[in-house]
Amino acid sequence: MSETTDGQKTTLKMMTGAPVPAPAEPLYATGAPAPVVQPGTEMVTVTIDGKAMQVPKGTNLLEACNHAGADVPFFCYHPGLSSPAVCRQCLVDVKGQPKPVPSCYTPVADKMEVVTASPRVLDIRRQMLEFTLLNHPIDCPICDKAGECTLQKQYFDWDAKYARNDGIKVHKAKHVDIGKHIVLDQERCILCTRCIRVCAEVAQQPELTMAQRGDHEVLTTAPGKRLDNPYSLNTVDVCPVGALTSKDFRFTMRAWELQSTPSVCPGCATGCNVEVHTSREQIYRLVPRENPYVNQYWMCDEGRFTYKRIYDERLGSPVSGGQLVEWDRALEDAAKLLRAAIDQGAGKAEGKIGVVFSAQSTNEDLYALSRLAFDSLGVTRAYVAGRDQGWSDNILVSADKNPNTAGAIAIGGGRLKSLMDLANDLKSGAITTLLVVGEEGVLGDGGTNALPVNKLQALIVLGWRRGPLVNAAHVALPLADWAEIDGTFTNRQGTVQRIRAAVPPAGDALPGWEIVTLLAHRLGMPLEFGGRPATAPPSARAVFLEAREKMAFMKNADWGRTSLPIQLRFANSRG
Ligand code: SF4
Ligand code: SF4
Ligand code: FES
């Protein structure tokens, strides 16, 4: 994604296929990041609270103040949306101006002198907060946003006084079902219009509006509309209070009980950066993580629900001959089947063994498998599988529903054939043994009829979920899924992005690279990573480092720093 700002109007455009810089690391600091300065940009000097600094001409004054560490509060401003300046929380004094100005609506000018915490500004800020809270229901004990609510935070930071309103508050509707995924509480809404702008500017489907006047003003759906666009849940993220709640998440977990792990959505080839929110080893939600080069601040609704796959019909234990077995026995049985195929081919694997790579696997799994398949076994019949193509748009969603097609193609290097070729090779008896690493999409809609795997002498499947292919396998080995492992995916732009383990693997499942390494060891063909013999399985990082050395497309990739999950209470800037 790229963003162009034209005055107050923000538009979103698709990125071209050109490689882009490595993604930004998660940003949990409170200060705004330093503006990116392109060479040749005209700079101006602004003085903020007595501190002179140079910023690009036209920089938003609120961004400049917060970059200078001033901590100017805001509700209606969002860096990915236009600025209507409706909440008046961000007022600052500018020398020469008779009244405080809304910093979110003011571009920086040369020699501007700004005071962010004068007695007049502090008093107005407090008064605006009191005004915003006048009819607010203070539902905090039962509100989903408590603990990450901007109104709570601003109140404690800038006011923290008892309410002076002892009259009856204006009541509004508490439970309005406005869309497939979202419930609105009109009483909690502080009328900031962020959600309206998400629909109009990000999803490009204006579905929300304001109705009525004064203290009876409410957020509502536009006449004849529901909040049903494919990006609707971004309105919940940007809502500074708990007025918009996700039906999937509401009342399941308090924000301060959640831990956040930075990762990447596996839903399609775009690779939106996400935070995986977990508590007690369970995933509760995915929310977008800012990356200006990939997804800016957003993700699609479909991507939010990819976490549910983690709990879907998982294969949790190794299976051999239809029986649950220990890892040791399963690996020995799988190795025996592969050895038999090698013997059948007079010591050569290439004529008898086929290997299926998956566009759902990480680069590390694919690289380890390529080492075993091409370097050790010398197979010549290798195929690539993945989820079927689906819908797409010009905003974020890709038709390719696999997170790592680019990685699979780059690592396969032209040696990977299609599933059609696999069907032909199975029908002609060209392969007798098939090793599948990642079962997603291998059988397609036609199941075992379209792909006659029952013709095989041996079928070994490393699989995430139970299904016809895993059930038909002579040996099935449980694969840890994307939220359970460390590794990297390569998105459609060619950017290698890091995923991180947020929860432990289901049952006894292991990462693909580890199973492949263990299997190679059983076959008497131990794999080396980084020039060191892997007597025990290496780490995902060791596989990554070697892959980066050998694979041109990974040469600028970065494993990133160790990132411990952070506790969420007021920890990031989503509100
Ligand atoms: S529902 Fe939330 S985001 Fe929408 S206008 Fe109200 S406070 Fe703002
Ligand atoms: S656009 Fe693709 S990568 Fe982004 S959130 Fe949706 S499914 Fe996930
Ligand atoms: S943030 Fe500036 S007016 Fe709302």
Description:
The protein is an alpha+beta fold. Helix content is 22%, strand content 20%. The strands form eight sheets. Strands 17-16-23-22-21-18-19-20 form an eight-stranded mixed beta sheet. The protein has a five-stranded mixed beta sheet with strand order 4-3-7-5-6, with helices on both faces. Helix 12 links the parallel strand 22 (458-463) and strand 23 (475-478). It is elongated, with a radius of gyration of 27 Å. Residues 74-77, 85-90, 102, 104 line the site of FE2/S2 (inorganic) cluster.
Overall mean confidence score, pLDDT: 89
Which oligomerization state do the chains in this entry correspond to?
Answer: single chain
Topology, number of strands: 28
Bound molecules: iron/sulfur cluster, FE2/S2 (inorganic) cluster
Structural class by helix and strand composition:
alpha+beta
Task: Using brief descriptors, characterize the structure shown.
single chain; 575 residues; alpha+beta; eight-stranded mixed β-sheet; 22% helix; binds FE2/S2 (inorganic) cluster
Chain-wise SSE layout:
Layout: E1 2-6, E2 9-13, E3 43-48, E4 51-56, H1 61-67, E5 91-94, E6 101-102, E7 112-115, H2 119-133, H3 150-158, E8 176-177, E9 182-184, H4 194-202, E10 208-211, E11 218-221, H5 234-238, E12 244-246, E13 259-264, E14 273-279, E15 282-288, H6 301-304, E16 319-320, E17 323-324, H7 327-344, E18 353-358, H8 363-376, E19 381-385, H9 405-412, E20 416-417, H10 419-427, E21 433-437, H11 447-450, E22 458-463, H12 468-472, E23 475-478, E24 487-490, E25 496-499, H13 512-522, E26 528-529, E27 532-533, H14 540-550, E28 566-567
Parallel strand pairs: 3-7, 18-19, 18-21, 19-20, 21-22, 22-23
Antiparallel strand pairs: 1-2, 3-4, 5-6, 5-7, 8-9, 9-12, 10-11, 13-14, 13-28, 14-15, 16-17, 16-23, 24-25, 26-27
The structure holds iron/sulfur cluster (2 copies) and FE2/S2 (inorganic) cluster.
